[in-house]
């Protein structure tokens, strides 16, 4: 009963870690996953979120086994 | 459709020649529109020495596939190609290659441009620049165009 | 700027590789937009066996130069290339290659597209098609896109 | 005291000739050059005109030594 949480780019450097595993006893919102995994209360407006490698919103419910990712604005191309 | 996220440098023109040889130069595709994005040696007024391009293994590839599928549904196209570098990149090296084959030029031009715009705004890549003095910074935002 | 009106077939990707080698892969040109128009084996519902492309020696070259000069004045571009076939052409052979190098993608995309549209509507070239049954006809009008 | 008149593509085939030379005693409009060189009274609306390899209108005045061209709608690219 856990979720994999990923941080990319400047977020990974800020937290000093690219991946954490979060124990889960019930479904949580992406926002709650952010709070527990980052230790920060508020989710910055420019942080992007994905659940199972698809863009998601802060209210999306995360289930056990899901992969959640947080990352800064994208700058490819 | 071919999507490639690759660590090694590539020559876009050779890549296109090979891709076209692969699907045969279709005598139906009257129009090919291509965009190549190359690493510049400057950004926001600073000289950039080199760059590291991070991605989200798995999501990045899936997302590019989605973007290609979207344009294939929106226009009548014969083929779509996206090649994107990751890892360590130096100035003048190609970063991205987008090519669209179609019977008509409007579809080719528009699909190619939409692919580039949506890729820039939504594909999970992140640039970290090393400046002339050795300072390292993450690029905050893509240029508007 | 390079304008070429040529009778012999050419490989657009090889042409681009050589052109870029010539001006050096500029580390300022972040964006390259390319269009290749290829002869199709159909037009207006008929199978086309081959084509003859007539031009107006002198005026055609001058007119293409004017179109290139116009986009160079309108956008900030590093280089413009136009290659156009004349004479006897068979399906799947490239007819036209337009390429634009710029620091920014919007300028590259827009200049490339405007070059193609103005070329189609104003450059003195005339297509004469030979159909599958041997019938010969002049093409009346270009397709809108 | 003459002008060179060129016909291209389907116009050349229609008249059976690609180039004629017209004697000129005074400046003529492009339209008048068309009438004299083609033998046709009216200039069809879809015929394009150039004087000295630059697009021109039917009223443009043609001088001795000029090169005048008539051609159908262009179909390159």
Topology:
The complex is a heterotetramer, with two copies of chain A (about 80 residues) and two copies of chain B (about 140 residues).
Chain A: E1 2-7, H1 9-15, E2 19-23, E3 28-29, H2 30-38, E4 48-51, E5 54-55, E6 61-62, E7 67-71
Parallel strand pairs in A: 1-7
Antiparallel strand pairs in A: 1-2, 3-6, 4-5, 4-7
Chain B: E1 2-6, H1 12-22, E2 31-38, E3 42-43, E4 46-55, H2 59-74, E5 77-85, E6 87-89, E7 94-102, H3 105-122, E8 125-131, E9 136-138
Helix pairs in contact in B: 2-3
Question: TL;DR of this structure?
Answer:
The complex is a heterotetramer, with two copies of chain A (about 80 residues) and two copies of chain B (about 140 residues). Chain A has about 80 residues and is α+β, with helices and mostly antiparallel strands.
Describe it:
- The complex is a heterotetramer, with 2 copies of chain A (77 residues) and 2 copies of chain B (145 residues).
- With 77 residues, chain A is an alpha+beta fold.
- In chain A, 21% of the residues lie in helices and 34% in strands.
- Chain A has a 5-stranded mixed beta sheet with strand order 2-1-7-4-5.
- The model of chain A has no long low-confidence stretch (mean pLDDT 97).
- Chain B is an alpha+beta fold.
- Chain B has a single domain, classed as Aldehyde Oxidoreductase, domain 3.
- In chain B, 31% of the residues lie in helices and 39% in strands.
- Chain B is built from 3 helices and 9 strands.
- The longest helix of chain B is centred in the C-terminal third of the chain and has 18 residues.
- The radius of gyration of chain B is 16 Å and the shape is elongated.
- Chains in contact: A-B, B-C, C-D.
- At the B-C interface, helix 1, strand 2 and helix 3 of B face helix 1, strand 2 and helix 3 of C.
């Amino acid at each position: 009963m856990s979720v994999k949480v990923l941080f990319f780019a400047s977020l990974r450097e800020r937290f000093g870690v690219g991946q954490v595993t979060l124990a889960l006893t019930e479904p949580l919102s992406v926002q709650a996953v952010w709070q527990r995994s980052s230790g920060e209360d508020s989710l910055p407006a420019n942080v992007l979120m994905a659940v199972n490698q698809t863009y998601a919103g802060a209210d999306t419910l995360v289930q056990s086994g899901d992969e959640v990712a947080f990352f800064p604005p994208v700058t490819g191309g | 459709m071919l999507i490639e996220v690759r660590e090694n440098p590539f020559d876009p023109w050779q890549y296109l020649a090979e891709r076209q040889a692969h699907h045969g130069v279709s005598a139906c595709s009257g129009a090919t529109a291509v965009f190549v994005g190359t690493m510049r040696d400057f950004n926001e007024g600073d000289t950039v020495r080199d760059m590291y391009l991070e991605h989200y293994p798995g999501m990045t590839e899936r997302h590019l596939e989605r973007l290609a599928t979207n344009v294939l549904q929106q226009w009548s196209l014969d083929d779509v190609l996206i090649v994107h570098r990751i890892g360590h990149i130096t100035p003048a090296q190609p970063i991205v290659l987008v090519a669209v084959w179609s019977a008509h030029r409007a579809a080719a031009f528009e699909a190619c441009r939409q692919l580039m715009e949506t890729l820039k705004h939504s594909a999970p890549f992140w640039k970290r620049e090393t400046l002339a003095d050795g300072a390292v910074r993450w690029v905050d935002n893509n240029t508007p165009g």
